[in-house]
Amino acid sequence: MDPLTWTGPVGSFLNPLLGIGIGVFLTAVIIQSLMLLIREEDPIVVNPDGTLARKTGLPGGVERIITLSMLLIIVLLLAYIVLGVITPHGTVGIIGGMAKQFLPVWIALIAMFVISMRYKRKLGLYGKLFDSTVGMIGLGIVMFWVFTALFTGVFDLIATHDPLAQVSGLKNKVPGVPMPDADAPYAHYLLGGDNLARDIFSRMVHGSVIVVAIAPLATIFAFMVGITLGLPAGYFSGRLDTVLSFVANLILAFPVILLFYLLVTPEIVETGIPSYMAAFLFVFPLIFFGVLLNSRYYTQPSKRTPILIVVLGVLLLLYLSMINQKGTVIDFLPEWLDLFDLDILVVFVSVVFVNSPTVFRIVRSLALDLRTRDYVAAAQTRGEGAWYIMLWEILPNARGPLIVDFCLRIGYTTILLGTLGFFGLGLSSESPDWGSTINEGRKLLLVFTHPPLPPAFALLTLVLGLNLLADGLREESLRD
Amino acid sequence: MGLFILRRLGVMLLTAFCLTFLVFWLTNLYPNLEKLAKNQGNSRMQTHEVATWLTNRGYRSEIDPELIAASRDGSLSDDDFEAEVTGFDTRLFANYGEWLGILPGYVITGHDGVTRSRCSNHSAVDGDEPQFCGILQGNWGYSTVAKKAVADVLPTRLANTGKLMLAVLLVMVPGALIIGILAGMREGSRTDRTLSTVSIITTATPEYVSGVVFISLFATGTFGMQWFKGSASSAVENATFENFTLPVLTIALYGMGYIARMTRASMTEVMTAQYIRTARLKGVSFRNIVLRHALRNALIAPFTVIMLQIPWLLNGVVIVETLFTYQGFGWELVRAASNNDIEMLLGVSIVSVFVVLLTQLISDVGYVFLNPRIRIS
Questions:
Q1: Residue B218 gets which letter from DSSP?
Q2: Count of CB atoms within 10 A of residue A84's CB?
Q3: How close A256 comes to chain B (CA, Å)?
Q4: Percentage helix, strand, coil, to 5, in chain A?
Q5: Is residue A154 less than 8 Å (CB to CB) from chain B?
Q6: CB of A228 closer than 8 Å to CB of A451
Q7: Among all residues of chain B, which has the CA nearest to that of A246?
């Protein structure tokens, strides 16, 4: 087999076109910014009757060139992907090979977008997202990685090789290198080999599973802790608020990396502190759902008791098997009850611990603001309990900012996970997660640049997608 | 105003007290001490030998001497002995007090007959040591990795990081303010959208990503742009454009987007204010509106953000100094933490905790000074 080039034979006529498109686009943008410096005019003008008109002449022409060249660039980029998918392996090189591997993701993305666009008026805030370009781009990027993680983790589809398998002779080889063994199931290392001769593409794809599984879950836990403590702090204020805010500020005053270095070391794991912290932090979802349902159905005991028993029973089982870990201080459950073992409990705990105080502060300030509203006064007059008001009156009205912050916080958690991997804390050195692979790759960065770049771009795009999604959500939730 | 500052100072001291105690507790957990004992003494010490070594030097070994004696003469098995080791004891508070310098340092005559004291650096006393020797007396302890007193190592590291931070602030603050003001003065324009996208991208790029990308772009020959150096170790002595650009840029970029977005938000808010409309109706030129009327009011909010950003820079500093092997404060933190250098880690923690608390105080006080609408009675 021959080594693959980046764009293959097809690239020989697509690449020059793309070059021209980008060149024209950049020149037009520069010309337009220069014109903006000289004259403060927008190429689009508003007529007195409220209609919009495009200006003619030089400014209008430049504007049209920008739009057209941008369209050309997008069409060409799509062409690489589409051609890569439909032509046989190797025609569009590495890009095409990757596009082909991601085929299930493309199908899922297209299906999701078509269905959502079709029914967007019936889908609430999620449907409104499809009115904002920024939000759609963000959602597209995020869902790309979610689907990648799903297809890799559950169906084992996208990766070309085993992320841990080492193939001798492919150590630090450049992208597109052919396998030495002619009848290997996949003929190339698409993005080259790393320091231990493992396939970088497969490792990057498998890394997404770890990030997509942990980051949202850790964020949800942080939100549970923050909401359960922040609502009463804001609603009752007084001494409770003073104490809780002091503790939150205490944790926030720690530089994150120092905290990680203090919490995620083998010595600390030995003392069992992370297990106790897990036992403390993970109990909050139980409290949250218990109080939430109890305050709602308090007046209907015949309905409340069965609901509470079922929900709390399931949560308790999950809670126990989460904190119960073989070989640590908390290890009492019988084998058959322990549903799963989190190998990276300590990473999970420290990420939740770092995020909770910030969520607490946000929820607290929202509750402080909302408790003076009329509907809260009305509920108080009706004689509703404090927890009912907090969870069923204040919390639903605070959902807008909380959803936006949730997206941002998943991104931040992703960055934190990467930081942990970058310092080699908590995660095993073989783990394909993006932070660890960047850390591994940076050691020889000045000699071989290709190993750390794919995970770096993957992490960057996921966080960027989450930030754009949050921006789109903020825009749309402010609109009504 | 005076009372406000006083109260803030009080809370700050209390926070510092709690935080230092937390760090002290986490760094002085028994497994850390055991590692220290094996590292300093003999790596093949038995559990009771470790305990003896630690009690002789005033560390908390959490075991009373009778247990050690029982273990020595064999009436207690090793497993039972281990079971007694972990737990909570009041020696922790005493140790913290000694380390802080509010309790007199220990003087212990050990099982081996040598009298050691804290103030003689855990070695045999010679009689003329002071009674108190903690942080408050200026005794920061001894770094086991650098083989020097912590007080000798930290200032040079801090100076190096100070140099880096200064360069970062000089790049980041003006850059962020300019981007934010340009984007915010005409909300919704193409300039606004482009600059906002740029700032979102920079906030989505953590330092370890941008650092790696910068090094491979500009410090290797892969892309034909080998303009800078990928290591900043020589910048400690002699910072040049070549070896200092990439680390500074890497840290500045991550913080820049956030400040720019805050500036933009504040600027758009000011641009819709009544007095700007009045100025516009009076016929003031757009340039004068922005420079004379809007700018000063729009810069109040970013000031707080910039001050609160400094603790975040600390994170970036640790990552970048590790990535570029720049021997500053963050590099020392990583070295101390990964080598169980307890006293150095404590010193580093104190400094960073105080940096965070001081910036919080400055931002609170500065906000009150800058914003005439807030009056503290």
A1: I
A2: 25
A3: 7
A4: 70, 0, 30
A5: no
A6: no
A7: B15
> What is the Cα–Cα distance from B111 to B52, expressed in whole angstroms?
7
pLDDT in tens, A190-229: 898 888 889 999 999 999 999 999 999 999 999 999 999 9
Residue B35 near residue B53, CB atoms below 8 Å: no
Work out whether the CA dihedral B307, B308, B312, B318 comes out positive or negative. Answer: positive
Please count the other Cβ atoms lying within 10 Å of the Cβ belonging to residue A2: 9
Rounded-to-integer distance, Cα A344 and Cα A85, Å: 37
- Secondary element (H or E) of residue A45: strand A44-46
Amino acid at A17: L
Note whether B176 and B255 are within 8 A (CB). yes
- Label residue B372 exposed, middle or buried (CB < 10 Å: 0-12, 13-18, 19+): exposed
Q: Compute CA distances A349 → A154, A212, A274, A344, A354, whole Å.
A: 25, 16, 7, 9, 9
Cβ <8 Å between A257 and B216: no
Task: Give the pLDDT confidence score for residue B87 in this predicted structure.
Answer: 47
Question: Quick check: A46 contacting B, CB < 8 Å?
Answer: no
For A54-93, the pLDDT digits (tens) are: 666 677 788 888 889 999 999 999 998 998 888 888 788 8
Could you give the CA distance from residue B308 to residue B288 in angstroms, rounded to a whole number? 30
For chain B, give every domain's residue range. Answer: 46-139, 152-370
Which residues in chain B are closer than 8 Å to A463, comparing Cβ atoms? 204-206
In the CATH hierarchy, which fold is given to the domain comprising B152-370? MetI-like fold (1.10.3720)
> Helix, strand or coil for residue B142?
strand
DSSP A336: G
Q: How far is B27 from chain A (nearest CA, A)?
A: 7
Summary mean pLDDT of chain A: 88
Cβ pair B229, B242 in contact under 8 A: yes
Here the contacts of A313-322 (C-beta below 8 Å, separation 24 or greater) are A315/A285, A315/A286, A315/A289, A316/A286, A319/A282, A319/A283, A319/A285, A319/A286, A322/A278, A322/A282
Q: To 5 degrees, how large is the angle CA A301–CA A303–CA A306?
A: 100
Q: What pLDDT was estimated at residue B7?
A: 87
Give chain A positions within 8 Å (CB) of B27.
262
CA-nearest residue to A134 within chain B is B197
A12-20 — which CB contacts under 8 Å span 24+ positions?
A: A14/A76, A14/A79, A14/A80, A14/A83, A17/A72, A17/A76, A18/A73, A18/A76, A18/A77
Average pLDDT, consecutive stretches of 10 residues, N- to C-terminus, chain B (377 residues): 83 89 86 80 76 73 60 64 55 82 77 73 72 82 86 91 92 92 84 89 93 91 83 82 90 90 89 88 86 84 78 87 92 90 89 86 77 60
Q: Which two tokens stand for residue A102?
A: 């991601």
Which of B11, B27, B191 has its CB closest to that of A36? Answer: B191
